[in-house]
Every structure is written in structure tokens, then in C-alpha cells.
């Protein structure tokens, strides 16, 4: 049996530069993924199909933003800078989030407001969330004990999120033909990006080698097994293998959507990063 290095504090992580570099890379990925998708979720405030969903979506986006903060705070403990600065002062190319998280909610204009795609929002959060759940379950056994601890806390909330998105998937798949067609079209768009969620980027071998998280392959296999069963229960045909976008968000390659999102997210904070907002 492989014996992984057990690290219970930032101080101990500092003592092994290679371990710290691998841990830092993964933490940025986890934090940036949730931070950017939480922002996309927040854009639905006042635009969800009904007021109960407006409240629910806002609450879950707030939870997701809180998850991002937990990871940024771990980076802060490792000496990478203040959590708020890490979230709001880095350049787009320094972000490690997947392309799926940064995609706009929709395109076009309707009465001077964005024309958002509800089916895409549901499909994106359901697929993203299902992969996040597999990852959080694996992170419970992380060799970095603080990451293991926060992952367990997040998983408690996240399971409720997944129940919510699965209910919506069933509703859209089994109501009208039009709703099902829109959901299937949205899933096609999500599917071409979602494979990147399993990537740890260029430091994958080191991240896995130190036992910080399980391998990409093991997470993918577990996800496929559980997700195919969920699609059967929902009443949808399996779309096939996940795709990977041309840009590599894990390597800092992003679409213009990310730069636009970061400009909006940080426009107040950058006025005076030293102030208490």
C-alpha cells in the first residue's frame, strides 16, 4: 500500500516546496471554479422562473461562493496573499477555473436585458455539481488534512444542491417536448466543456503522487458509473464521452467571458483594496 505524506498544517506544507506547489495549484483550481460559477449563478437574481427558485438559486450561489472563500483562505495560510486579493486582483490568465464555469448564461438581448438560457443553467450546474461531488468525496481522504476537513463541510451543503438540480432535470426532461428538447440542447453545450473538470493541469502527476486527491482517471470512472444511472432515472439518453474545450483554463487560457466577469466582480474592490467594505 502506498503511504502518502500526511500534512496537517500550512507550516508543514511550507517545509516541502514540491508538496506546497502541487497543493497550491489544486487549491487555485478548486477556488476559482466555485468563485466564477457562483458569480454566474448570482446573475440569475431576479430572473429565475419563479420567486422560490430566485431565493434557492441565490442561496446556493452564496454557498458556492463560501466554498471558494474556504479554499482561498487555505491559500492565504500558505502565504499566497489575502483571500480577497486572490479572488479579485489577479489577472485572467492567472485564474485556473475551467472554461465551463466562465461561459455566459446566455446570449442576445431582450428588452435591454440579457437573454438567459434556463435549461443551460440547470444542465451546467447539474453536471458541474455531479463532478464536484465526486471530487469532494475523494478530497475527504486528502493528505492535506485541512483540505480534507473543509471538503467534508462543503459536501454536507453540496448534497442538498445536487438534490435541487436533479429535481429540475427531471422536471425539464419529463414535462413538455419543448422543455426536453431545450434541456438536451443545453446538455450538448455543457458536454463539450465538462471533461476539463477532471483535469488537474500540468501538475497532475505531483498532485496525485502526494495523495492530495485521487487520480483523474479514478474520479472519471466513478462519475461515469453514477451519472449514467442518474440519466436513466431522469429519462434522458446518455450523451456519450465528455469533451474538452480548445482553451485550457487549467493552464490560464480563457475566453473573453472570464475577463468580463472579473471586471464586474472586482470593480468596487479595486477602488481601494485596503478598505473594509
What does this molecule look like?
The structure is a single chain. By secondary structure, this protein is mainly α. It has a single domain (10-271), classed as Ferritin (Up-down Bundle). Helix content is 62%, strand content 3%. The chain has a two-stranded antiparallel ribbon. A hairpin with a 2-residue loop joins β1 and β2 (113-116). α2 (17-42) packs antiparallel against α3 and α3 (51-77) runs antiparallel to α7 (145-173). The longest helix is centred in the middle third of the chain and has 29 residues, at 145-173. The protein is globular and about 60 Å long. The chain starts with 9 loop residues before the first helix and ends in an 11-residue tail after the last helix.
Write the layout of secondary structure elements.
Layout: H1 10-14, H2 17-42, H3 51-77, H4 83-88, H5 99-102, E1 106-110, E2 113-116, H6 118-139, H7 145-173, H8 177-194, H9 204-209, H10 216-234, H11 256-266
Antiparallel strand pairs: 1-2
Helix pairs in contact: 2-3, 3-7, 6-7, 6-8, 6-10
CATH superfamily caption: Ferritin, core subunit, four-helix bundle
Average per-residue pLDDT, rounded, comes to: 92
> What fraction of residues sit in β-strands?
under 5%
Instruction: Summarize the amount of helix as a percent range.
Output: 55-70%
Rg over CA atoms: 19 Å
Work out the oligomeric state of the chains in this entry: single chain
Strand order of the largest sheet: 1-2
CATH class reads Mainly Alpha
Helix/strand structural class:
mainly alpha
Overall strand count: 2
CATH topology: Ferritin
The gross shape turns out to be: globular
Main sheet: strands, sense, barrel: 2 strands, antiparallel
Q: What is the architecture at the second tier of CATH?
A: Up-down Bundle
Number of H- or I-type helical stretches: 11
